[in-house]
Amino acid sequence: MKKSREIRIAPAIKKELASEFKVSYQTIDMTMKYIFNSETSKKIRKRAKEKLLEEANNIED
Q: 48 lies in which domain range?
């Protein structure tokens, strides 16, 4: 499977990240598309991946 250059997350998670990092929703959107690549953006992407793993672990078999 080809690696994606975009992290696709639910709008609710984007809102949580915007609140957590005190940035706009648009900043989160641009960060997830790798348009922004600042240190903060890297931290946001790392946290987004953590949140995706948390969501995946909450799914029952």
A: 11-57
Q: Spell out the long-range contacts of 43-46 with Cβ–Cβ below 8 A and sequence spacing 24 or more.
A: 44/17, 45/7
Residuewise pLDDT in 10s, the chain (61 residues) = 667 789 999 999 999 999 999 999 999 999 999 999 999 999 999 999 999 999 999 888 7
Contact in structure between 40 and 18 (CB atoms under 8 Å): no
pTM confidence score: 0.87
Angle, helices 39-57/11-21, rounded to nearest 10 degrees: 130
**How far is residue 53 from each of residues 20, 22, 23, 39, 58, measured CA to CA in Å?**
17, 22, 22, 21, 9
**Domain count along the chain:** 1
